[in-house]
Amino acid sequence: MNIFQYQGQEEDHYTHILMCILDYKNQLILPQFIKGLITQESSGFQYSSLSIHTRTKFCPQPQKKYEYVIGIAPYKSGLTHSELEDNSGSIPDAWICGGNFNLLFEFKIRGVLDEGQISAHKRLINKEDVQVIRLTWDNVMDSLVDIETDDEILNYLLRNFLMLKSRFRSKRRSSGMPKEIISHINKSDELHFVITGSKAHKPYKVEKIFGGKIELLKDDLSGITVARGFIARYVNQNKDLLPFDYIGDATVINDYCVAPGRAEKKNLWNQWRLGSFLKK
């Protein structure tokens, strides 16, 4: 696979880049990616004879014990489709195959999955009641963040792909607030929150840091999204006591994500707006 081969469409291009990264050095990080992405479903996977195939309609491998359709989009809910609409010509974005599994991938970088397309993809797998796993780009990025490798090229490619996260979203959510998270903006001299944890090191904890003072706010959170939701509620409830400019849902929050046991260079600064994580 050639990572520099332009695919003609933005969606296909980003999918191709991701698959090239996962295919690098004989799929060096692919098992980690799959385990992080579909932890429960992959518990019985055998990671021998791994292969990745893009823009191939039919599965390039024989039928396997484990076979899934995996749909990835900014949001899980899908577009309904007309029964008269013919999606039989739809081609999956990628197949990932292993010793005892075949995974069909459909990616959307805008909006939601097309359920007609998903139904057509299910028919490409010769198995009754094939399971469809609906995930978001947050799930993909979380799995990539948790990958550990000493390969400098892979780390470079992963860091740069993670910077694309803000592109894989609709411009607006139903609340009217952008969900976009902007990374790599260091705000250590301002009020910020440190989120410490990873899938391998739970629970997550949140600390408030300002003026050299560190205050533990919460230490029993289940994940990074839950942690940001907690921060949003904390800020909203204590807005009059915090040293920052409060402008409602548009208030900018700074956080620093720390994964215990990993190189410091993999920790990440992020900015997001308060309304993105406040439940209405």
Quick overview of this protein structure:
With 280 residues, the protein is α/β, with parallel strands linked by helices. The protein has helices at 10-27, 30-37, 115-122, 137-145, 152-162, 224-237, and strands spanning 51-54, 66-73, 94-97, 101-107, 131-136, 182-183, 192-198, 201-210, 213-221, 252-258, 268-273.
Could you characterize the architecture of this molecule?
The chain is of the alpha/beta class. The protein folds into two domains: 10-144, no CATH class; 171-276, no CATH class. The chain is 24% helix and 25% strand. It has six helices and eleven strands. It has helices spanning 10-27, 30-37, 115-122, 137-145, 152-162, 224-237, and strands at 51-54, 66-73, 94-97, 101-107, 131-136, 182-183, 192-198, 201-210, 213-221, 252-258, 268-273. The strands form two sheets. Strands 6-11-10-7-8-9 form a six-stranded mixed β-sheet, with helices on one face. A five-stranded mixed β-sheet has the order 1-3-4-2-5, with helices on both faces. Helix 2 (30-37) crosses helix 4. The N and C termini lie far apart (45 Å).
